[in-house]
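thought: fold this chain, then report.
action: predict
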Amino acid sequence: MFDFTELLHYKSKIYILFDEAIKNELMKLHYNDVLAEHYEVNRTINLLFKKYYWVNMMNDVQEYVALYAVYLRI
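observation:
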């Protein structure tokens, strides 16, 4: 269960402050979409940015996608 004290709402977006578990879960949900296979980095960032924001979001998503690609090759 998420610790909702880590969430901050501002201008219709949820700002994720420090919780890496929440960031990872959001990236997983938006990248590993059941209906659309795996989105590219830019599509994943755009989906996340509609509702969420955190510092270094782009770098985090790029790293997540790269690590997932490595995982698929194993």
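thought: worth noting. The CA atoms of residues 41 and 63 lie 9 Å apart.
final: tokens above.
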